[in-house]
Amino acid sequence: MPRGAGGGSGEGGLVAFAGDLLNRLGDVGVGALVLLETVVPPIPSEVILPYAGYLSREGSLTLVGLILWSTAGSTVGALLLYWLGAALGMRRASRLLARTRLVDEDDLDRGAAWFHRHGAVAVVVGRLVPGVRSLISLPAGADRMHLGLFVLCTAIGSGAWNSALIGLGAALGTQRHLIDPYLDVLDKVVYVALAVAVAVLVVRRRRRRRARIEAAED
């Protein structure tokens, strides 16, 4: 079992910690993380699912279980946002999410525009587009898209996205003998990527705040 896959190597690092955590959570727990990612977009399924697929080659995670539970998590999370949009309407729901500072208003506007241009197709294809994937559910709910059609489109799009990410990780898992020696390097890359992501988020928010202040002054 590789370092980071929940084995007994005892070595530390973020990659090792993530591997231990995912193996302890199991397929259902990974599905719960994906549910959170759907509602709270900064949690990256692009990182969680490939690594879970990678770990599925050994340990407590399984390919079929990961695909089924992650798709179920995506669908339940999308339904929560659908019902929020249906209950509050697009404008109030957008304001509520924007206040949490976890969602950018530009992403909310982009998701709404995508849905209004493409309808049900947007719910399927939008699951493949970062930044739109989660938030497409809000305008669908606000416009009272048929619930059964929404669930079907969400399951198809989310299932395709999750399967691709998990499958990619599983394919990499077949080459562990080539990858494992570089996990220490991967640790450093992950730390740098996290620092860059936080810096970009801070800069974007400051620029948008400055733009709103300037617009108000005009």
Automatic annotation (TrEMBL):
Keyword annotations from UniProtKB, A to Z: Cell membrane, Membrane, Transmembrane, Transmembrane helix
GO CC terms: plasma membrane
Alphabetized InterPro entries for the sequence: DedA_domain, VTT_dom
Membrane-crossing segments per the record: 63-85, 147-173, 185-203
Membrane topology recorded in Swiss-Prot or TrEMBL: Multi-pass membrane protein
Domain (VTT) ranges: 43-170
Domain of life: Bacteria
Location(s), subcellular: Cell membrane
Family according to the record: Belongs to the DedA family.
Database matches in PANTHER family: ALKALINE PHOSPHATASE LIKE PROTEIN, UNDECAPRENYL PHOSPHATE TRANSPORTER A
Protein known as: DedA family protein
Organism: Amnibacterium setariae
Origin organism lineage: Bacteria, Bacillati, Actinomycetota, Actinomycetes, Micrococcales
